[in-house]
Amino acid sequence: MSVRQSLLAILNQGPCYGYQLRAEFDRRTGSTWPLNVGQIYNTLDRLERDGLVQKANIAADGQHYVEITDAGRAEVADWLGSPVVRTLATRDELAIKLAIAVTLPGVDIAHVIQVQRSATMRTLQELTRTKNATADPESSEQLAWLLVVDSLIFAAEAEARWLDHSENRLARASAAGLAAPLPLNTDVPKRGRPVKTVQAEA
Fold this sequence. Notes:
Elements: H1 3-11, H2 18-29, H3 37-49, E1 53-58, E2 64-68, H4 70-80, H5 93-101, H6 109-133, H7 140-175
Antiparallel strand pairs: 1-2
Helix pairs in contact: 1-3, 1-4, 2-3, 6-7
């Protein structure tokens, strides 16, 4: 998720200060991705460095406001008009966990999958209850929040399907004798730290 572009898009509505930006981000996303104030100010510093925002006048309440520049508005327009590119690199912790677990000796991979499936189903049930409690949005704020909840529900459903698929694939691999632990490869050139030698005193 791009915190940078999200904050810029909010600033496109008018000048804000750090705490205000955090509150606006939370309000518009249903607090599903909490940001701390330090992250907000670090992002603002980078945006200012890149010429996308600039300091505005200090208000009567003493708050230091920032405002978007023309370059910042152009970046918001580009962000909103472009697709989100999903990387092909697998960085999903669960996928990596299963990939490693299936190569280790003594790991009950079926249990690992079952533990995750139970957690995923609990999450899905909680999200569904949350969504049903606000089935008919009464404001744009609630509508924005429901869009995020819908996304989380679809992701949990996809994860449950992937776990079922993985369980079936592993069962077939086990029946074919393919699900065997990988021993460490000792032929790989060593590039670690050299062993320190202790010199005897003269």
